[in-house]
Specification:
190 residues; five-stranded parallel sheet; 5 strands; binds adenosine monophosphate
């Protein structure tokens, strides 16, 4: 299987690039943010819980997120592989993912980490808010919180994969097509 963690701060382009990667490599796209948003729309208990954190730009607790991720992976029968988008976001999630993938005889192949300057991230999120309708994109205070949470809790996940020699940093500035080309090149050179 080809299992990729697509990593980067909010606004790095993970969702956009995931769509292109699943088309090219026939992978399943698993975005924990998307799953939480569809639960919010469906007014499920999980959605209500997730919303209380997302509205503040905080992370949903690990136990909830890890259980959800495991259940989503198991929904797919003999997939070619997964793109994990927005997961793992803490070291505890990364460790749990390794243990879980091992239990189903697979593992993470590669972490592709998109590097984008902070000013550019904020610009992209504000632009995205105009079309996404996402409350957490529209409010500069929530954006700042999400970026702070990224630096404190999420960016250490890079070292986790670096220690396993699976981290590849990708220049995330430039056009969508340019960034896609860089990602394709990295995956094809495995
Ligand atoms: P995203 O769509 O990836 O930007 O995620 C939107 C929000 O969903 C985040 O700001 C978190 O509140 C929540 N979320 C998504 N993925 C995770 C995760 N792996 N762990 C904890 N919270 C998450």
């Amino acid at each position: 299987m080809l299992n990729i963690v697509l990593f980067g701060p909010p606004g790095a382009g993970k969702g956009t690039q995931s769509e292109r990667l699943i088309d090219e490599f026939g992978l399943v796209h698993l975005s924990t943010g998307d799953i939480f948003r569809s639960n919010i729309k469906g007014q499920t208990e999980l959605g209500k819980l997730a919303k209380s954190y997302m509205d503040q730009g905080k992370l949903v607790p690990d136990s909830v997120t890890i259980d959800l991720l495991r259940a989503e992976v198991l929904k797919h029968n003999k997939p070619k592989g997964f793109i994990f988008d927005g997961f793992p976001r803490t070291n505890a999630q990364a460790e749990a993912l390794d243990v879980f993938l091992d239990s189903i005889d697979t593992s993470i192949t590669l972490m592709l980490s998109l590097d984008v300057e902070e000013e550019e991230l904020k610009k992209r999120l504000i632009k995205r808010a105009e079309v996404s309708g996402r409350a957490d994109d529209a409010d500069p205070k929530i954006i700042d919180n999400r970026i702070a949470v990224y630096h404190k809790e999420t960016s250490p996940v890079k070292s986790f994969y670096e220690q396993q020699r699976k981290l590849v940093s990708i220049e995330g500035m430039g056009s969508v097509d340019e960034i896609t080309a860089r990602l394709f090149t990295s995956i094809k050179s495995i």
